[in-house]
Amino acid sequence: MSSDRPSRHVVMFGRPGSGKSSLAERLGDAHGFRLVRTGEMLRAAIRAGDAIGRQAESLIAQGRLVSDELIYQVLSNEPTVFQSDRLLFDGFPRTLGQVPLLDRLASEIGFTIDRYVSIEVSAEEALRRMTGRRVCPQCGATYHMVNRPPKRDETCDMDGADLRRRADDDPEVLQIRQRVFDEETVPVVEHYRKNTVDRFRSVDGGQSFEQVLKAIEAALGLEPGTASKLM
Ligand code: AMP
Q1: pLDDT tens profile 199-218
Q2: What sign does the dihedral 190-216-166-37 (CA atoms) show?
Q3: Please, are residues 91 and 177 in contact by the beta-carbon 8 Å criterion?
Q4: What is the helix (H) or strand (E) element at residue 204, kind and residue range?
Q5: Angle at 89 between CA 52 and CA 81, to 5 degrees
Q6: Best mutation site among 21, 35, 42 for ligand 1 pocket (most ligand atoms within 8 Å of CB)
Q7: Which of 84, 90, 124, 142 is 20 to 30 A from residue 25's alpha carbon, by CA?
């Protein structure tokens, strides 16, 4: 692949509170990425009250990770998600045990990850930011009361539903989620930093939202803020 071709398949890493999900949404809107979000798939299963949702609910509320097997199940249940020539993985892989699951999906479906992007923010800054996060209970859109506020008060721009704090954004749970990230996901980031040096990029997540977005776009070889065409 030539170095100036935009990345098609991307994995984004960032601790809870790094802005990763909001950044992924903007990248999806601006550049046509299909988002693959295991957290959102699990929350949809909880809303539907199905078997996966029942297994995931209390773990998510406590800030713990669900098992690698359950993650493989939710991903396998949604094969249409992968029918896109631009995928952005947001929240997977999250443990070293999930690294081979991504390899397996990539070889079964036939794609290659061309960028691993790590948004780097300190745990203290991440905690400060997370207190502003809100989500729409109906459609799952995410907002931030400072960085990405809804147009009207605390209501969703898409469907007007009252925005909520996620159950796992409770202050005590936030601390647990930071610890889980350090213990389970930092080793995954370090794995790719070390083993895929040419495809790995780290971005300073301590800048403003728009600056971080631009830095990620540059890391992916995308023109800022434009819907770049697939080549
Ligand atoms: P997220 O929306 O990505 O922050 O995910 C919310 C919660 O879903 C996490 O705190 C975990 O409990 C669970 N979860 C999401 N993705 C994964 C994953 N890849 N592995 C294990 N648990 C996950």
Answers
A1: 999 999 999 989 999 999 99
A2: negative
A3: no
A4: strand 200-204
A5: 60
A6: 42
A7: 124
